[in-house]
C-alpha cells in the first residue's frame, strides 16, 4: 500500500461530512518506520518505537504543518527512517495515516529532530 490516510480516518471523515457524526482527534502521535508501514500502519516499525506528540497549526489551503518541533532523543538502534505513521494514542489507538520522510539515518544514542514546518500534510483541492 502506498502511504495515505487510513481506512479508520477515511470512514470518520466521510461520516462527519455525510452523516453529521462528530469526529476529532485530541492528540496526534508520530511513529518512525524503516519502510512503508502498510494498510494497518504496523509494518517496518523502527527500533525507536516511542511515539511523539505532534502539534499542528491551523489548516489553510488544504494543508497543515507542525507548529512545534518533534524530537526523539537517545534513539535506540541505528537505522534509516523513511516513513512515519500518525496515531491518536501514544500506544495502541487508531492508525490515522502514513507518509514518507526524507531518509533520516541515525545511530543509537542520536537525536532526531523535525523542525517547525517539517511535517506537512495536504489534501488535493479542486482547481
Q: Describe it for me?
A:
This protein has one domain. The longest helix has 13 residues, at 7-19. The chain starts with 6 loop residues before the first helix and ends in a 5-residue tail after the last strand. It has one helix at residues 7-19, and strands at residues 28-33, 52-54, 63-65, 70-72, 79-87, 95-106, 112-114, 120-122. Helix content is 10%, strand content 33%. A four-stranded antiparallel β-sheet has the order 2-1-5-6. With 127 residues, the chain is mostly beta strands.
Please give a quick description of this structure.
The chain is mainly beta and about 130 residues long. The chain is built from one helix and eight strands. The protein has one helix spanning about 5-20, and strands at about 30-35, 50-55, 65, 70, 80-85, 95-105, 110-115, 120.
Instruction: Describe the strand arrangement of the main beta sheet, using strand numbers.
Output: 2-1-5-6
Structural class: mainly beta
Major sheet details: 4 strands, antiparallel
Number of domains: 1
Radius of gyration: 15 Å
Question: Could you give the count of β-strands?
Answer: 8
Unreliable stretches (pLDDT < 50, length at least 5) are none
Give, in order, the helices and strands. Answer: HEEEEEEEE
- Portion of residues in beta strands equals 25-35%
Count of helix runs: 1
- Averaging pLDDT over every residue, what do you get? 95
Q: Level of helix content?
A: 10-25%
Distance between the termini: 27 Å
Query: Per the principal axes of the C-alpha atoms, what is the gross shape?
Result: globular
